[in-house]
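User: Hey, quick favor. My workstation is busy. Could you predict this chain's structure for me?
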Amino acid sequence: MVQVPRNPASRTTSRPVTRTAPVSGRPTLASVQRPEAQTPGGPQVRIHLGRVFKAEGGNYFLLLGTTLFLVIFGLVMVLSSSSVDSFLADMGFFGGLLRQGMFALIGIPLMLVASRLPLAFWRRMAWPSLLLTCFFQFLVVATGLGRGTGGNTNWLNIFGIQFQPSEGIKVALVIWLGMILSKKQHQLDNWRHVFIPVFGVGGGATMLVMIGGDLGTTMIMAGILFGALFFAGVKLRLLAVPLLVGVAGAIVLAVASPNRLTRIMSFLKEGCTELSGEISASCWQPLHGTWALANGGVFGVGLGNSKAKWSWLPAADNDYIFAIIGEELGLIGCIVVLGMFILLAFAFLRIMRTATTVQAKVSTAAAMVWIIGQAFVNIGVVLGVFPVLGVPLPLISAGGTALLTTLVAIGIVLSFARGDRSSQAENDFDDNEADRA
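Assistant: No problem, here it is.
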């Protein structure tokens, strides 16, 4: 120990300095954390913000970019396909675009907000969201507030505002299935622990939509249930009986509606491919959709130059917007749309593969089956592979409720992509701090 002697003259300017060797267990001067590192706005805050911005990885931006492309492309096609009908309805040529654009301006921020919410939030919202949307659907089928189109009762009118609760049920099922199957992940081989909650609750929600007569939406919701069970790891032999019951229910629903039965029988008898005689009402839409695709050829007639949209093709901006895409942009435009949905499916699969929780994996799978499955059902209807089912093309067709709910579902999946990446970033940060220590 070396001690510097005191100097009375410098008592006010200097103090004795004692240098000692560090004692085990006693903090040294170098080990004391500097106070400015704990102040708001200091280095800790900057590190936190850096971790937030590093949280988005390739899967996040792949899904986000593909979604935004489809939404913008959909706005362009809604403008083209709805301009004539909007003008005839005294809304001007841009009426359909302005309405769809308003929902896009609401839905995209909702998607981004949903992408920032943690997994725990969606776990807490599983039951409330499902019960609320089922309550609204009950009002559709059990009260005078329900409104119907094309033989289906699937709209709810409250104070002049119309929306489809069945679209909200799809989002609620995405959240709820992830939550319930994550709790049952160690009991998936026991059918009582899987099918009673899934088909008791989820099947009940699907039945509410079936009562309204919406066969297309009912099939999509059934696909969500089976898709979630399959990707959760339930064995196929356990899914066989519920699948047969679901097919039988779809047949009963089809036979129960004369309008729907006529469309299906026309499709099965190939009545909508014969040009002899007068075109029946059930064949008018699919035939004009086929003619629109044929008129487009390989390169199309040009954006905005469709003939089918001049009141020849019903639902040109909705269920049959793919026919307008084929007519105006040709085979090349159709291939681009198909490619974008395949890319969207690829993004979903990548997020599922990197998911660190069962809930994230199952909810992502349910959203993928819903959006990608509905897209290919819609395209199959336009191509004549399926009978007319009345389901829109996700992210592209006109329809406010469908666009909002689809964007929210994608936002939920984006939150899973961020969560997995954030966890990895936090682990890397902790490892770096440990190395520095």
